[in-house]
Amino acid sequence: MPLPSAWLSSLLVAALVWRLLSRRTVPSILSRVRGPEKEHWLTGNLHRLFRDAYDYTFHLIDSYGGVLKIYGVLGSQQLFVSDPRALHHVVVKDQDIYHESEMFLKTNQLLFGEGLISTDGEQHRKQRKMLNPVFSLANMRELLPTIQPIADELLRGIMTEVPPDGGAKEVDLHPWMGRGTIEYVGQAVLGISFGALDPQNSNEYVDAIRNVAHVGLKIIFLRPMVPWVVRKLSPFWRNKLVDWLPLPPLRQIREMCYTMERHSKKILEEKREAMEQGRASERRDLMTIMLEANVSTSEEERLTDVELTGQINTMLLGGQETSTSALSRILWILSRDQPAQARLRSEIRAAKLAHAAASGHDGPWESVHLPYDTLMALPYLDAVLRETLRVHPPTNMINRTCTRDAILPVEFPLTDASGEEVKAVHVPAGTNIVISILGANHNKQVWGDDADVWRPERWLTASGERIGLTEGRSVDMMLGQAADEGDKSAVDGTPGYKAGVKYPGVYATMMTFLGGGRACIGFKFAEMEIKQVITTFLSRLHFSLPSAVDKNGVRKEIYWRIDGLQIPVVREPHGDFKTPQVPLDVRVVRDSDYL
Asked: Model pTM greater than 0.85?
């Protein structure tokens, strides 16, 4: 049924009034901040940030500096921030001022429930306090041996597509990585198997989690209206609105929400029943640890069932998106850089041979499973992962909202609209802050002149050892630890720390996993999972770029679009430039594939 014209008019008027009211004093204060001209009356400049935005991001930063003004929906003035001192204030020092936007929180609440990415204030603090110990290094060490079979099964699945005679065959690895990461989260975090590694197996919950972000990008222009709709319309009328609007992706998103809610409730009920019957100890998983902690805590600190189901959806979403992108990207990079692939494979073989000798392993070295501390300490593997996540962060940007008038200092002075050099920007309450993760990770003033270059050696000493320990501490922040300006000695001399300047990232000063109280809680789990998969794969498989050519001799080419998320596609004429895929030529490893 089409939406009545009266409703369309009312929505348009409401949107305009809402925007006009929210702008208030913003134009007069932000008029001093330089930035590009508004390109579209409805989307301002934002559409450029969700349309293959790599070049546009760096054009903005090169032209206007680390804090600049862009235009959002209906002309709203926003700040695009990549300066290190400014980001330290946004995510750490003044994080009580710069909150997740209402748009972000309300959208995630509708999609996933009341999990970590959908809450703020005291509710978020309570959840974080409960979950930080769950993702401890001790729990990661305990989990690793129990989830190694996932990497082994994933390898066997891919090898069914590889010729046994040693020849190469093109395999689209992106769906395999997606299946693997969702199974990792299922078994390690929730203690259940989704059967995701079987290509013939279909699971509506898995499909919803894997596709919700990509479907959401199709209607991202609606997100600014979500808070108003939630406040003003009952669930009944919100559903009517979804039915009336001529937007199929919106109805698709709604069905995904129903699916995620239904399955997360079922998982919670089954986990709780297992605990009550004494079956929870059969297999340790992070959800069981969280439920045990929740039962033993005080009533006021305890998470509700709504919050617990929200964590299930949140952990599934966050646990597969970043890892799928990173794994696919690493395999693509190693296919393009054969010397790096040979060096990494040789390091893995040496580590497995050494562990086999020390542990009395009598099988082939390829089947050796490295213990946690050995796996995490492999220098070149660690460097490859860090450099990949720095240069190619899976998420391009994220938002914050300034909740009261504030001063945002900058590390590198800006030139304002009058030509005057300034060292701070006045930020009015209500201003949206776009954190450019990509821009921060590529800042040449912090990372060096080769910041745009994928060079894992930047994380290694001249002798090939890891850079990262100063005064006995890791460059990574521990969960719950806050970076502050007096703690610079902890990373002095490491990549991303230059002339007393660094970013406040929880992961090696890069902004990929953010920093402060809303940093990604699962980054150590993702790191462990990715390293385990890569060591398992490179022990037996070799990867190279696709060799297929069309009738005109044009070779198949993989291209990574940056549409908010990093999306690998295939260029025409071999692909549609839209469908996520990473087709690589894969074969069994030969002796010549080692250094």
From this structure: yes
